[in-house]
Design brief:
By secondary structure, the chain is of the alpha+beta class. It contains six helices and ten strands.
């Protein structure tokens, strides 16, 4: 793509030159050779869109879905946050998964299957799982970890339905677990 001095980038660079001169008590001299050379930081592919730089005003740019950021991480981080918030907001959290489960003592998967299928039909995006215990039988006896996983926004609703269904079955419940994107903590 042909390169050109982006007018918006030029204005920001000149503003930065003015700010630095004022901070140093120097006269603003935009035509000085070193300041004219600084304008090269605003030469981008034609048609590029600016990415604002709150750190020092030296903009980055985007060409389609490719984004270019100048400087050190202290500059790049707020710029990439801006890109994510302005170009990819709909994707933020789109792949997040939450999970809630409970231990069901003495439960049999075959008797729990209708409840599991009902929840999956009633709550979009939810998967219900059961993990029969094959260890520690001498400690807890036969038990199943029964839970729901899916988008965080619907997991609590699905778990409420699961708990209500288990209460109607009069099964004995144990500890609950909550996991978000692979992290787990007892509840």
């Amino acid at each position: 793509m042909p390169l050109a001095l982006h007018p918006g980038a030029r204005d920001l660079i000149i503003e930065r030159i003015r700010d630095v001169a004022a901070e140093q008590g120097q006269p603003f001299e935009p035509d000085r050779a070193d300041n004219q050379h600084r304008l090269n930081m605003g030469v981008f592919p034609e048609g590029a869109a600016l990415i604002p730089n709150p750190y020092n005003k030296i903009a980055g740019f985007s060409v389609g879905s490719v984004h270019f950021l100048p400087g050190f991480p202290v500059m790049a981080w707020p710029m990439i946050e801006w890109v994510l918030d302005h170009h990819y907001l709909a994707l933020q959290g789109a792949h997040a998964v939450a999970e809630r489960s409970v231990i069901v003592f003495g439960g049999m998967e075959a008797t729990l299957t209708p409840l599991m299928e009902d929840i999956e039909q009633r709550v979009a995006g939810i998967k219900v799982f059961s993990l029969p215990c094959v260890d520690d039988r001498h400690v807890h006896g036969r038990h199943i970890e029964l839970g729901v996983k899916g988008p965080p926004i619907v997991v609590d609703e699905a778990f409420r339905l699961l708990r209500d269904g288990l209460a109607a079955m009069h099964v004995r419940l144990g500890p609950e677990m909550v996991r978000n994107q692979g992290n787990s903590a007892p509840k």
